[in-house]
Amino acid sequence: MAQGEPLFARVAIIGLGLIGGSMAAAIRQNRLAGEVVGYDQRADELAVGVANGVIDAAAPSLEQAVTGSDLVVLAVPVRAMRTVLAEIRPYLDAKAVLTDVGSTKTSFVQDVEAVFGELSPHVIPGHPIAGSEKSGVAAANPELFVNHKVILTPADNADGRDVERLKGLWEGCGATVLTMSVAYHDEVLAATSHLPHLIAFSLVDTLAGEDENMDIFRYAAGGFRDFTRIAASDPVMWHDIFLSNREAVLRVIDHFTKDLDQLRSAIAEGDGATLLRVFSRAKAAREHFSKMLSGQAYVTNNSNKQVTFHLQPGGSVRGDIRVPGDKSMSHRSIMLGALAEGITEVKGFLEGEDSLATLQAFRDMGVTIEGPENGFVRIHGVGMHGLQAPRGPLYLGNSGTAMRLFTGLLAAQPFDSELTGDTSLSKRPMGRVADPLRAMGAVIDTAEGGRPPLKIRGGQPLAGIHYEMPVASAQVKSCLLLAGLYADGVTSVTEPAPTRDHTERMLEGFGYHVHRDGATASVTGGGKLTACAIDVPADISSAAFFLVAASIAEGSDLTLRHVGMNPTRVGVINILRRMGADIEVLEEREIGGEPVADLRVRSAHLKGIDIPEDQVPLAIDEFPVLFIAAACAEGRTILRGAEELRVKESDRIQVMADGLAALGVETTVTPDGIIIDGGQEIGGGTIESHEDHRISMSFAVASLRASGPIRINDCANVATSFPGFVELAKQTGIRITTEGSES
Ligand code: S3P
């Protein structure tokens, strides 16, 4: 189509109410069609449409409206569709696109099939999710669809070009267009729109009926007003909608009635635990929904969040800070707290998306969890056998730790479960946990190549095994130990090199004995966990960005408080010190079975080193930022034995090498590591983070020694492990700004 030519030559809007009128006005205002004609049975509405400039012309009959139009939009009540379709049928051009704006889609498709005998490729059902309390063409508003969703439900045989044109038309009106199946549309709308309207109508009617003078409403506060606003909607339209979307609405009413009954019984029986569980799960879901509201309703992942970091070169890093809680411990605190008997209170919990995914998954399995509020979480443990089957797949976002640890835990439950994740997680290897679990008797299906989603069959008896891990992985070890809690006999795991031992320590803290013998950890199944208090220290993996920042930037002096100093995690300090970093460890203490200290770090002249291989598992998450340290050091740094880096949230060897190259720093990539010659000039440039949080933060740190501005793409996932990174980085002296929305 030539540029500037409108998408449609002649659009007929049948039914000139609020939605039809607004659509006509938007099409005209944005010059999306050559001509917009309107038809309505109500001559007065048509006259207003012409007088207000909503339509170009009023058609005196349906025949005149439809004849010669290449787009016909039915904006009549859903119960009137079939009659109108029969009336326009003789005049509809065989190639004209036919769409509607009704709230129910199955009924529209049935009406079209009843009248035309088939669903032609030019029929594309639609539903703009927009409205107003006002009605009639007088209220038509060309801006009504701006920043609103429009759902199109084309059939498989729909003409692709027609779908694109209609999509273009709605986008031209300012809307965001989603496509989905007719059935899915009706299910989603039954749940999120139709049921709430039904409840609002019913509640207001019940209350009004109880008090004939309706005096009761005088005492109603804002909550009641908000909750029942939709009960003032058009009764005729809603009567239409419920009768048209009967099946889907009945299903969701039944579901709701059952849940309401459960609440009734809980109140009758004084069962506070159930009330608290349902309310806190709902509160969490509502808060999640509020965040989504500003983004993408009807889409549940983060794929549309776009965050870009912009860094100005130079600066030094100073101050006294505490980074957020340890990610590994936060995950484990929820898992063990949920399975314990009694109430576990957690302080310092990481409110990052990864650990929140774990928290939400346990809520989905019936565990009452209060918080998090400023890092405080209270978990009402359900005991080893108290988890309930989740209603759907458990979505674990970006978190490999959650998925691998859950697999062990769920393999031992009496119910089936399914684990899913975002694009990055969906590419990560899960065979490393599925294979040994199968050897214990678990039944687990993976997608091709051992990737997620994982389908775990419940009710399989597990037997303890001894497992020699081929890779040093704390996640695999932890997964097997968790499964081992439920297995018959002893489950033991030997690691080829020491990896983080938070699972072992925390199990002990919950009163579950873990036998340790050199490189082997074992548990005997059948025991129980007892609730305890957990104080999560600051995450050394998050502190690492600031350790490197203060080391490489001249004039820096920074104190990091309450950092977890578990010996299986301090590789980054060992490596940096070997490179000549000035890191003082102050106030060493032990809190809840984990060593903690304050760290004071000042700028230093770093030297390149051969990184000892035994440090690799102890610094596994810190290599991206250590590569930045290496680029700033004098001489050569060599890393070997780190092939695991290739299967993290991204291939961290290649992605870092590409990023460094974008800034003019050449490196040599090897299959299991990298060689970095320090001292090359770090220029400005654009970095592709591959949505990997640690890559984004590492290059933010690199700016301190860069000679030009750095732009880092796709940084939304920083929120998985380090919410508040940007503010803290700014506060200490890193010259960072963001573009886009960070949730
Ligand atoms: C983790 C273990 C490590 C680490 C991850 C957290 C854990 O993964 O990279 O960020 O909490 O157990 P691997 O076990 O795959 O090395």
Report the major sheet: 5 strands, parallel
Share of residues in strands: 15-25%
Name given to the CATH architecture of the largest domain: Alpha-beta prism
| Cofactors, ions and other ligands in the entry | shikimate-3-phosphate
Strand arrangement across the biggest beta sheet? 3-2-1-4-5
What gap, in angstroms, lies between the N and C termini?
39 Å
- Estimate the global geometry from the Cα principal axes: globular
The CATH first-level class of the largest domain comes to Alpha Beta
Whole-number mean pLDDT: 93
Poorly predicted parts: 292-303
CATH-derived topology of the largest domain = UDP-n-acetylglucosamine1-carboxyvinyl-transferase, Chain
What is the gyration radius calculated from CA atoms?
Answer: 30 Å
Number of strands: 31
Fraction in helix: 25-40%
Q: How many DSSP helices?
A: 24
Return the domain count: 4
CATH superfamily of the largest domain: Enolpyruvate transferase domain
Structural class: alpha/beta
What key phrases describe this protein's structure?
oxidoreductase, UDP-n-acetylglucosamine1-carboxyvinyl-transferase, Chain, NAD, 6-phosphogluconate dehydrogenase C-terminal fold, 5-stranded parallel sheet, alpha/beta, transmembrane, 31 strands, aromatic amino acid biosynthesis, Rossmann fold, 3-phosphoshikimate 1-carboxyvinyltransferase
